[in-house]
Fold this sequence. Notes:
The chain is an alpha/beta fold. The chain has helices spanning about 65-75, 75-80, 90-95, 150-160, 185-195, 230, 235-240, 245-260, 270-280, 280-290, 295-310, 345-370, 390, 395-410, 430, 445-460, 465-475, 510-520, 525, 535-640; strands at about 105-110, 120-130, 140, 165-170, 205-210, 225, 340-345, 380-385, 415-420, 435-440, 480, 495-500. A hairpin with a 7-residue loop joins strand 1 and strand 2. The chain is rod-shaped and about 200 Å long. The termini are far apart.
Amino acid sequence: STPASAVEQTGEPRTTDGEPAAQTADAVPLAEPVAEAAAQPATDQAPAGETAPAAEQAQGQPQGQSPAQAEAAAPADQASGNEGAGESAYTAQVRSGYGFSSPTLPVGTYLDTLSGGDPAAVKGLSVGIPLGLLNRHALVAGATGTGKTRTLQLLAEGLSSAGVPVFLADVKGDLTGLAEAGASNDKIASRIASTGQDWKGQSFPMELFNLGGSDSGAGISGTPIRTTVTEFGPILLSRVLGLNDTQASALQLVFHWADGQGLALLDLKDLRAVVDYLTNTDAGKEELKTIGGVSAATAGVILREIAALEAAGGEAFFGEPALDVRDLMRVSPDGRGVISALELADIQSQGTLFSTFLMWLLAELFETLPEVGDPDKPTMVFFFDEAHLLFSGASKAFLEAVVRTVRLIRSKGVGIVFITQSPTDVPDEVLAQLGSRVQHALRAHTPADAANLKKAVSTFPVSPVDLNRVLTSLGTGQAVVSVLDEKGRPAPVAPVVVNVPAAVMGPAQDGTVNQVLASSPIKPKYATGVDNESAYELLAQRVQADAEAAEAARAAEQAAKEQAKADAAAQKALEKEAARQAAQRQKEAERLEREAVKEAQRRQREAEKAAERRQREVEKTIGSVGRQITREITRSIFGTLRRR
Length: 644
């Protein structure tokens, strides 16, 4: 095989004299999961590899041990079990340390860097990760072009073969090759000959996804992945929108109010409608006072960032039907785990959304899955590629949520594999939760690179391997492995030649991709977005109802004013009429009184006249009677009639 020292950092193979070697159809291979390998102990695997670069200087021992000292310190019983003449004590220690009794996920073949001369693969000495410990999480790191993607592919293949569902992000668009069996070539043949890997081409069951069903950037329209704004939550959304702590707190108030009102935030227009309602309507401002204020400036920032996210295509991700994470945990009819690949070749424009979506997916898995403790194999393994995008510029609340999720999700049987360029891309709190590591080559071209290298070396267990030198001299497809054994103890640090993947190491043919898309059992479920009634519609109805109520109130007020005016006029008219009638009655009464007085006076006069007449009559009568009486008396006295 081509010596690793003749492989440039770009991965271009060259001959030992520096001339470019003939290119093959495949990229420089990294690893290969054999279908049966995951179910067998690591010592039964036949790994593949490539000769490491020749040492150009004596190997230093940062831990204070020389190779001879390490060999002298190795237990005699370990040395006695060595396979092969001249096997070093540390090689025997590696063989013993990785001879797990439980199923193992193969990573590669041990690369002996301590025996003197050029580092060489120890044929048949397989190094892997105990399958039952993958829920302790892992890290795959290394500089650009060192083979991280192929290691990711290898691990995904091994997990699928073991019946473990896998979710990974295809940020380069070249992992669709998992759906297509790999074909041997001279380079693969040379590598497996040097390592003894039992390699054969194999395809794996796949499901291709896109965020919101948008084109991946590589022409693949996979099964749409959507979720609702409510399910995504304010902390993750604040991360996507790039809000500061004050703005994030305001957004949490908005979510709290919407939840209390029973308003479903399904998509971004719902969120925009709620923010607008609370900050720009009188009714909303009154509502907002009950939960704490949000300034107009803060609301303006939130609305602008929502608009920017929509303009960047983020609105396609939010909506219904929302992804049911249980659809990511499928097993094919032949018992292999389905590899779900999120196709996102255009990561530069959606990097924050992509990384935050992966964090949401982990949170959903944590909320959905039951507690299982430490199973014999993971319930699911989640590959978090471009992990630096998740942590760069993240708020304290967001980082706390990430650390909490990583720490607790292991009890759900979910393993997380972070893939990034340097271990320093991952916060120490997260790094402390990772039980396994596959470290590809690191570069030390600048003081910052040297500092990162020193930090990376300090995180490995103590061993006689000079990691300062080895990590900077590893070739493409080589790595240093550090794992926990079945008892949770660090296994020996092991440089390896990573196994060759069984599937195509690159994009699959269009026909294969189309077949995967057409045969998807879940794509019809998510293909068409649905715009159900939500906060946007409900608030629009509320605003319309408020407007109609306000208009009705204004109309009622106007009518009341007019009625009051009419009533006042009517009352005034009534009062005027009453006054007129009262005056008329008074006048009539006065007239009647006058007439009564006149009548009384008339009657009095008539009475007086009548009295006078009676008086005169009386007097006349009296006079006449008197005279008669007088005459009568005279006559009676004298007996004679008196004449007049």
